[in-house]
Amino acid sequence: MQGLKVLIRARSSAHGLGSVARRRCISAQPHYAQYDHPEDQVLVDGRATSRTAILSRPSALNALTTSMVNRLKRLYESWEENSDIGFVLMKGSDRAFCSGGDAVALHNLLNEGNIDECKKFFETLYNYVYLQGTYLKPHVAIMDSITMGSGAGIAIPGMFRLVTDKTVLGYPEAQIGFHPDAGASFYLSRLPGYLGEYLALTGDKVNGVEMIASGLATHYALNARLPMLEERLGKLVTDDASVIEKALAQYGDIVYPDNKSIIRKIDAIDKCFCHDTVEEIIHALESEAADSYHEWYKTTLRKLREASPLSLKVTLRSIREGRFETHDRCLAREYRISLAAVSQEVSKDFSEGVRARLVDKDFAPKWDPPSLAEVTEEMVDVYFRSLEESDSELKLPISLREPSI
Questions:
Q1: Which residue of 146, 155, 359, 360 shows the fewest CB atoms closer than 10 Å?
Q2: What is its EC number (predicted)?
Q3: Is 402 a domain residue?
């Protein structure tokens, strides 16, 4: 892509996608909170003028459940109202930040016929993501190590997104018969060129350097420096975003996308993924593969052919519509898509994809429909139609949090 610089400085813009920040005067008096339940999967580290939410479900790579998201939402609402708290942080425990929603748990609920609990999960998650996108205080997400799908959705709407040399981000939803959600259609559609379409359709992963280059992250630091960085943040007595930004930048590094980086292939991505249909994208990749014999084209084609044909078409349309919608409208549309997926009215691809990749792990899903040619426009339309009862639509507190809209 023209104008995309190879040299990327870790110190970047402090403004998050869709975030709203307002400064408040705060007291410097210590305010500590204690939680007595070791079974909690969201822990809290309380400092004098900041709070840190710690995702603590390491056996599941900190995958999100309804109870976890409910707890996060309650904590964040209380912290926002507490004038003693200047800013908020979030991080994961062990070897992951957050691997996204617990797809296996949703799969089990569907097998039990409990669609209502699945709906509750998505409603709770998307409301929390919206809260993040309109949060009134500076927010720092330390996206160290594994970050997948909606794990990014609970971090990217905030003001600061710190990544490291251990960070790995991916969107494997189409490969399990689902779609990138939790606001993904908003921020992926705003990446340079057609990089968002590429990531959403192929499930390919990017590292911390590539996240800085594409704007998904604001700051980069080596994993080994995190203890020092967190100690520095913990000593801050402020609600001033510029002070927090300087503390983050103090531990930043100059980083370079290497020769194998997807950033180096942005022109090829734009050339192939700019088309209006998945079939046209695949045809463009096949033509380039025949002319150049570059292994990347073959690998990309393989990833697309492994994905659910229906999910590919739903995902592409979702990303394209996201280009012209606000964060809240993207969440409302994604909610409809998610409910259509778990209702299994058109296809059971979500259950089948989770079974094949995460439960039985035979990696041989039987997609329905099995080919792109058999996915009709009417099938895709079902995922985007308004819910039959208006009360069933996603309810976000827009008038309270964005009264000017």
A1: 360
A2: 3.1.2.4
A3: no
Q: Is residue 248 part of a domain?
A: yes
Closest CA relative to residue 251, chosen from 225, 218, 223: 225
| 156 neighbors 17 (Cβ within 8 angstroms) | yes
Do the Cβ atoms of 221 and 162 come closer than 8 Å?
Answer: yes
Entry field: residues in the chain: 405
Residue 359 belongs to domain with CATH number = 3.90.226.10
Q: For the whole model, what pTM was predicted?
A: 0.88
Closest to 220 measured CA to CA, from 259, 261, 249, 258: 249
Q: H or E element: which one contains 312?
A: helix 309-322
Q: Which domain holds residue 364?
A: 7-393
Distance between CA atoms of 119 and 297, rounded to whole angstroms? 37
Beta bridge partners of 220: 163
Q: Give the residue among 268, 94, 251, 101 at the shortest CA–CA distance from 182.
A: 101
Question: Which residues are bridge partners to 88 per DSSP?
Answer: 51, 139
- The answer to whether residues 189 and 320 touch, using CB atoms and an 8 Å cutoff, is yes
Burial of residue 404, with CB atoms counted within 10 A of its CB: 0-12 exposed, 13-18 middle, 19 or more buried:
exposed
In sequence order, what are the beta bridge partners of 28?
A: none
Fill in the amino acid letter for 160.
F
The Cα angle at residue 401 between residues 398 and 405, in degrees rounded to 5: 55
Give whichever of 1-15, 140-154, 386-400 has the largest mean pLDDT: 140-154
Tell me the C-alpha distance between 186 and 322, whole Å.
5
Tell me how many domains the chain contains. Answer: 1
Looking at the domain assignment, is residue 399 inside a domain? no
Two structure tokens written together for 8: 């990327």
Convert the pLDDT of each residue in 180-221 to its tens digit.
999 999 999 999 999 999 999 999 999 999 999 999 999 999
